[in-house]
C-alpha cells in the first residue's frame, strides 16, 4: 500500500510537484496518467527515496523512504527510464549480480532467475551479453531485475515503451500475476488502451497536482465522456492544464 499526502518538490524555479495526494492499494494496478512534464517521474523518484521531497508525507507499507530507506528498498521495485545495464555481462550474469546484492544466492537465485525469465518471456536473451540489446530487450532485463527480490510494491515508469505486441502481452501477464499475488503496482504510462484494459485505478496529475483519482469507468462517468482518452483530455485541459 502506498499513501501520499501533499507531496511537493521544486527544482530551482520549476515547481515539479505542487501538492500530490493519493493512495494506491495492494492487489491493484494503479495508472499514473499525466501530460508530458506533469511530474510523474519526479513523483516516482520521490516515492522510492531517490529525490528528497520539500514537503508532504509518503508511506510505503507504512515506511517513509527518507526515514527508513532500507525497509522501503526491500519492499519496492522501481523501473526507471535509466536501465543501467552492464554491457559486458550476459542477462543471467547481470541478474545474478543484482540478486546477490539483494541477499539472494545459490539455488534460490537460480530458480528465481528462471521464474522471472519465464514470466517475462525472455529465455532467448538470458545467455546473451546485454551489449547491443534492443529497447524492448533492455526493458525486459531491467524489469526482471526490478522483480527479482519479490517486492510487494512496484513503481514502473512507462514499462511498455518500445515493446512489441508479444512482449507487451508478456508484460501484461506479468502485471496481472503480480496483482493476483497482492502486490501494489503503480505504472506511469501514456498508453490509454493499456490503462483501460489493465488498470483498476487511475491517478491523473497535471502541472504537479492530483486532478482526479478513480477507476477508468469512474473517470468516464465523472466527465460524462465515454472514452478514457477524451475523459483524460477533459480533466487536464487541451494544454495539459487542469480544468
Ligand atoms: N532534475 C531536474 N531539474 C530541473 N527540472 C526538473 C528536473 N527533473 C524534472 N524537472 C522538471 O519537473 C517537471 C516534471 O518533470 P517529470 O519528468 O517529473 O515529468 P513527467 O510527467 O514524467 O513527464 P514525461 O511524461 O514527459 O516523462 C518538468 O517541468 C521537468 O522539466
UniProtKB/TrEMBL annotation:
Pfam families per the UniProt record, alphabetical: ABC_tran (PF00005)
Keywords: ATP-binding, Cell membrane, Membrane, Nodulation, Nucleotide-binding, Transport
InterPro entries attached to this UniProt entry: AAA+_ATPase, ABC_transporter-like_ATP-bd, ABC_transporter_ATP-binding, P-loop_NTPase
Protein name, entry field: ATP-binding cassette domain-containing protein
Organism listed in the record: Massilia litorea
Domain ABC transporter: 2-232
Molecular function via GO: ATP binding; ATP hydrolysis activity
PANTHER family to which the protein is assigned, alphabetical: ABC TRANSPORTER ATP-BINDING PROTEIN, ABC TRANSPORTER ATP-BINDING PROTEIN NATA
Family that this chain belongs to: Belongs to the ABC transporter superfamily.
